Amino acid sequence: MGSPLAGRVHISVSIMTHPQRRDLADDLCERLGELAPRIVVDPEPDGPPTAVRTAAAAWNSAPSDATHHLVIQDDVHPSREFTSALADEVRSAPMCCLSLYAGWANRVGATARVAALTGRRRFLIEESFVPAPALILPTGLAREAGAYLNAHMADADLGDSTLLSSFLRRRGIPVEALTASLVQHDALGSPSLLAKSAAKGIRRAACFRDDITDHTDLDGLLARPPALPYVIPDNRRAVVDVGLPDGSWKTLHAAEWLEGRGYDDVLPPPVKPLVDEGGRVVASSSDLREAWLAAFCAGVLAGPGALPRSCEGSVAAVALRSLLPGSFRRGLTGPDVALLTDIGGPLIDDALERSRRS
Q1: What is the pTM assigned to this prediction?
Q2: Fewest 10 Å CB contacts: which of 30, 87, 146, 206?
Q3: Where do the domains of the chain lie, and which CATH numbers do they carry?
Q4: pLDDT at residue number 5
């Protein structure tokens, strides 16, 4: 028996905003015009800073005639052909809870890169939060999510992404994310009204759909990978989180993980610090070597069946180019991101090539 939603998709959209950021919401509303989005403003704009109030109102605003409800933040930039791509994703899995955005840092970014290297269209989110910049749920569930947020307003300091994750886990409902994100976050350089969010630095997608020029077909779902390599932004150390039977993760330094797999002589190439035009060090030699190790581990994990990245605009290439800036997101400027993406590309390429030859 097919899904009760098969063949019928009506997506409603709410844009979360605050009066101080209303211009962002208006611009986004214009971009999403054919979806007729509704702008939802913080109902207590002078209250304690939190996104939970606005998120609760946004999820509760799902109309009864919609099959799915999308809540999207005001500082995202939708991809080209966003509406048709979104409808295709919903039709392919109408009962799915789907994040249209996967950030470039930590385990989420690492999973997106493994998914890109292995040709998977989506991957499971197994974190204590859900990527909330653009999240779509079946309408009934969306309203339940809004009620849950209202009932847990006392825990608003946890943030809407953590509370939504708690709600969905209690319901036993998995969340999937797109390997090729349909929105870019922080693309407009807007300041966050939340100190906690601002401290996270620039948050971009691990792999943004508009950056892909070689649209190799992606298919299938990447479930929990056995290991996830990434660089910790706080200390810029390359680590590999190894999945344990109880669902938790054990964190190893990348070199330790490689030694356990028989790679005893893996040494990053000698590299000079990356400096900007003014002579400021954007990434030290140590930072770059750690990023190289994380990329090498990603290549080992993906194995010989990994997608080729011969084309600069391939899914794998785009995802891997975000590893370096995503690792050093705190304190970066827009020019820093461009420098790390462009100059860091050959370094990441070298790591992947070395992993294939090893």
Answers
A1: 0.91
A2: 30
A3: 11-211 (3.90.550), 226-357 (no CATH)
A4: 43
